[in-house]
Write a structure and sequence with these properties.
The protein has one domain. It contains six helices and four strands, in the order βαβααββααα. Strands 2-1-3-4 form a four-stranded mixed sheet. A hairpin with a 2-residue loop joins β3 and β4. About 25% of the residues are buried.
Length: about 120
């Protein structure tokens, strides 16, 4: 699984750092502006404004709440159970609305700085 994120987003940076700690080593991360994204992510998701997290897993691309649900399935323990509960199909429409509101305002609320996660095989170019 590869989680693609906006490499110039403060909120995305925080989310990646949190997911880094909450997921297994087989979950990797790459900026939507990078060369890995050009290989796996359709252009419509790599063109600004970058308003969604994109998850690539075994040839399938997911975004918004579907992407969150894919990542939640890879999270062990209580955090994983809570994340999976939040992404149940019953809550998906509400989750997508909230996701879009946050995506539109994230630079204003969280800034545009991005401190890259530690150098590792989990961080792809």
């Amino acid at each position: 699984m590869i989680v693609f994120f906006d490499g110039a987003c403060g909120l995305c940076d925080r989310a990646v750092r949190w997911l880094w700690d909450c997921t297994d080593v087989d979950v990797r991360f790459a900026p939507l502006q990078g060369i890995t994204a050009r290989k796996y992510v359709p252009e419509q998701f790599r063109t600004p404004p970058l308003n969604t997290l994109v998850v690539w897993e075994e040839g399938v691309v997911c975004f918004e709440s579907d992407g969150l649900a894919s990542v939640a399935r890879r999270m062990p323990g209580l955090r994983g159970r809570m994340a999976r509960a939040l992404t149940l199909l019953l809550f998906r429409p509400l989750l997508n609305v909230g996701y879009r509101v946050i995506a539109r305002n994230r630079h204003r609320w969280f800034g545009t700085t991005c401190r890259l996660v530690p150098d590792s095989a989990r961080l792809l170019p």
